[in-house]
Design brief:
By secondary structure, the protein is of the alpha/beta class. It folds into 3 domains: about 10-80, no CATH class; about 110-160 and about 170-405, Rossmann fold (3-Layer(aba) Sandwich); about 415-430 and about 460-695, Rossmann fold. About 45% of the residues lie in helices and about 15% in strands. The protein has 30 helices and 20 strands. The strands form 4 sheets. Strands 1, 2, 5, 6, 7, 8, 9, 10, 13 and 14 form a 10-stranded mixed sheet that branches. A 6-stranded parallel sheet has the order 17-16-15-18-19-20, with helices on both faces. It has a two-stranded antiparallel ribbon with strand order 3-4. Helix 11 packs parallel to helix 14. It is globular. The chain starts with a helix and ends in a 12-residue tail after the last helix. The chain binds pyridoxal-5'-phosphate (PLP). The site of pyridoxal-5'-phosphate has 12 residues, from helix 9, helix 25 and helix 26.
Length: about 725
């Protein structure tokens, strides 16, 4: 039966409300601007109040009223079209993966991650790692790669950020209503909701399993909020990265061991196991146990087989960033599984130690992941090098450059991050259905043909949209206190679309140095209040609740925004999330990135900016170290490091100011007779053309398929490549 016939029969018997509900039940809508627009137009104010959650919107909107409203807006035909496109997408059998990775079809890839950043209405992510995992699922879906995700359901999510008048961050947690999300209970072959149990030395922890549809991909989320659990354990998965080490290890046994058991209960037998960061590495132990039980293998034999199908992506270039547990904690939580594997305490601990015999070493999840997978990679070329150095002691018989850790550079999901207006430009100059081939350089060559004035006008309109949005958020932030009339006026008039606008938004982890550009306030004053060529700054980002140094940096940034010299010109927007990120990356002129090299494993926000015509001004670290070609953005710091952090910070700050003054500002304000910055526009075009195809998630997932998934599934045997 053809997809078209199938959809026709469905169409005749579903009402508008049913079709919209069906569309809302699969996150596919979130990367389709036309479908998003339908939900928005139904009730724009409510749409924004509900944080763009269509499930809630439809629950709140009575069906009769919906029909009326649809008639008024002539929505019926658009909904029918959207619904038909969705069904065709779901039923397609000519995807990239059908052509290139058919081997994976019988047994899918299981992709484990502690966080997934898919949409603002589903706050189960904290930052880059989660957004990367979300983009990975979306591209796997678009490419047709057979893949299921496994994660945790955090019923209070990460946190909402509030910044007090003194600049100190506080955290607010709200309960997410499960019934108002596009999730359903995952059921087994008999239609029974799946429950999993993980034993510890002091009783068992239980979890239910939710299923979320991300296009063609299914994501399973484990949730311990069920009556079988003790009070404490019921709240075990409430918060992402909350609690202490004990919470952490208990979350990780649910994610890893519980996740593997959930797949088994669902009848899913993965051919490849992909661990996105070390949090989920216990999964590999459970897959070994399953293999021993099913096939009567010894631990060594089963470990060998599981490792062959295992892929591990490490993300953390700092030793302190890796999860470590004491022997007591491992014994309590992994001991029972160790018994089943036939491992005593020492053998078990040895799996998490670089030197298995060293009793001083704590149990490291990254080490476990390296030992239990044959295919390992960092997330940029530079991060691959750093990781090989960092972990060379795991392979003492190899030289550093033989260490089997390759790299696959992170990319972003184009339809998620590309502004609708910019997409119209792409559609005009790139080949038809370009988005199905966005990992190919030829496809992007046509961007050179965009007319400069059109590109500039689209960019200006996105920038204006960002500024209007920022003013609205600034006003809302102010209205929580007792603002003066002058403050309200400043917020209403904050930021000027005709002036250079630099954005900086990311987690306020100290190594990201949010305050680097604020090193000297007199210099900042001279830049921001320059009579002809002024600079404006927009900041956003959360510090982890337990990160005091990060909070102090945030406080300093916030206090600068309150300085009379900078009010309305340097601003801080609270509560950075995917929604705010989308506005920022689509509207800024310049995206500033100044981590302490080489601590930024990849970074991805700058890649989102590129797609929308913004330019990067960045330290040569992570993805930018391999992306910058001298003309597709701006770089500073010269790739140099210094042993003394203070010295490195000072040098980097000086170089940042030099590049700003000598390159960025002059290029931006260099206008022709039509007031167009021709030189700047050439850079914008070059950035899209040279970087768009490389730093997108389709290319990334295709690399994972070819260099990791296919070999792991037994088709070929090469390792993840070392060099681009
Ligand atoms: C893209 C994104 C990130 C990652 O940003 P980097 O600092 O560049 O890694 C973090 N948070 C959100 C909300 C994002 O959208």
């Amino acid at each position: 039966m053809t997809p078209a016939r199938k959809t026709r029969s469905r169409r005749t018997d579903s009402t508008l409300h049913e079709k919209l509900t069906a569309l809302a039940s699969n996150l596919w809508w979130s990367w389709q601007p036309e479908v998003t627009n339908i939900f928005r137009e139904i009730d724009p104010v409510r749409w924004s109040d509900l944080n763009h959650n269509p499930v809630k919107l439809l629950q709140e909107y009575p069906p009769e009223l919906l029909d009326e409203r649809a008639t008024e807006l002539a929505l019926h035909a658009r909904v029918n079209l959207a619904y038909r496109r969705w069904r065709e997408y779901m039923d397609a059998d000519d995807t990239w993966s059908d052509m290139h990775a058919g081997v994976l079809r019988p047994r899918p890839v299981a992709y484990f991650s502690a966080e997934f950043g898919l949409h603002e209405s589903l706050p189960i992510y904290s930052g880059g790692l989660g957004v990367l995992a979300g983009d990975h699922l979306k591209s796997a879906s678009d490419l047709g790669v057979p893949l299921v995700g496994v994660g945790l359901f955090y019923s209070e999510g990460y946190f909402s950020q509030r910044v007090g008048p003194d600049g100190w961050q506080s955290e607010e947690y709200t309960q997410i209503e499960r019934a108002q999300l596009p999730i359903r209970a995952a059921v087994d072959a008999n239609g029974k909701p799946v429950r999993v149990t993980v034993e510890t030395r002091h009783g068992a922890v239980h979890a239910q399993v939710w299923e979320l549809h991300v296009g063609r991909v299914r994501l399973y989320l484990l949730d311990t909020f069920i009556p079988e659990n003790s009070d404490e354990d019921r709240h075990l998965t409430a918060r992402l990265y909350g609690g202490d080490q004990r919470t952490r290890i208990r979350q990780e046994i649910i994610l890893g061991i519980g996740g593997a058991r959930a797949l088994r209960a669902l009848g899913i037998n993965p051919g490849v196991i992909h661990l996105n960061e070390g949090h989920s590495a216990f999964a590999a132990l459970e897959f070994i146990r399953i293999k021993m039980e099913d096939e009567g293998l010894s631990f060594e034999e089963a470990m060998h087989e599981v490792a062959r199908s295992g892929v591990f992506t490490t993300h953390t270039p700092v030793p302190a960033g890796h999860d470590r547990f004491t022997e007591d904690m491992i014994e309590e939580h992994i001991g029972p599984l160790g018994d089943q594997l036939g491992l005593d305490r020492k053998a078990l601990m040895g799996l998490g130690r670089v030197d298995p015999q060293n009793p001083e070493e704590t149990f490291c999840m990254t080490v476990l992941a390296f030992k239990l997978t044959r295919h390992a990679n960092g997330v940029s070329n530079l991060h691959g090098i750093v990781s090989r150095r960092m972990w060379r002691n795991l392979w003492p018989w190899l030289s550093e450059d033989e260490v089997p850790i390759g790299h696959i550079t992170n990319g972003v999901h184009v339809p998620t991050w590309l502004a609708g207006q910019m997409r119209v430009l792409y559609d005009r100059v790139l080949p038809p259905r370009w988005y199905l081939r966005s990992g190919e350089p030829e496809v992007w060559a046509g961007f050179e043909d965009v007319s400069p004035i059109e590109l500039w006008e689209v960019h200006q309109s996105l920038k204006y949209r960002l500024i209007v949005y920022a003013r609205r958020r600034l006003l809302r932030q102010l209205q929580r206190g007792n603002p003066s009339d002058a403050d309200i006026r400043a917020a209403r008039e904050a930021l000027d679309p005709e002036k250079l606008l630099i954005g900086f938004a990311r987690r306020f982890a100290p190594y990201k140095r949010a305050d680097l550009i604020l090193a000297d306030l007199d210099v900042l004053d001279s830049l921001v209040n320059h009579p002809q060529q002024p600079v404006q700054l927009i900041f956003a980002g959360k510090a982890h609740p337990a990160d005091e140094p990060g909070k102090r940096i945030l406080q300093r940034v916030y206090q600068v925004t309150q300085d009379p010299r900078f009010k309305g010109k340097v601003v801080f927007l609270e509560d950075y999330d995917i929604n705010l990120a989308r506005h920022l990356v689509q509207g800024v002129d310049v995206w500033l990135n100044n981590p302490r090299r080489p601590m930024e494993a990849s970074g991805t926000s700058g890649e989102k900016v590129i797609l929308n015509g913004g330019l990067n001004l960045s330290i040569l670290d992570g993805w930018w170290a391999e992306a910058y070609d001298g003309l597709n953005g701006f770089a500073f710091g010269g790739g140099k490091r210094h042993r003394d952090e203070a010295v490195q910070d000072r040098r980097d700050a000086e170089d940042l100011l030099r590049v700003l003054r000598e390159e960025v500002i002059p290029a931006y304000y260099d206008r022709d007779q039509d007031d167009l910055p021709q030189q700047w526009i050439r850079r914008m075009k070059r950035a899209v053309r040279t970087l768009g195809w490389r730093f997108n998630a389709d290319r990334m997932v295709m690399d994972y398929v070819q260099h990791a998934y296919l070999p792991a599934a037994g088709a070929g045997s090469c390792h993840v490549p070392r060099r681009p």
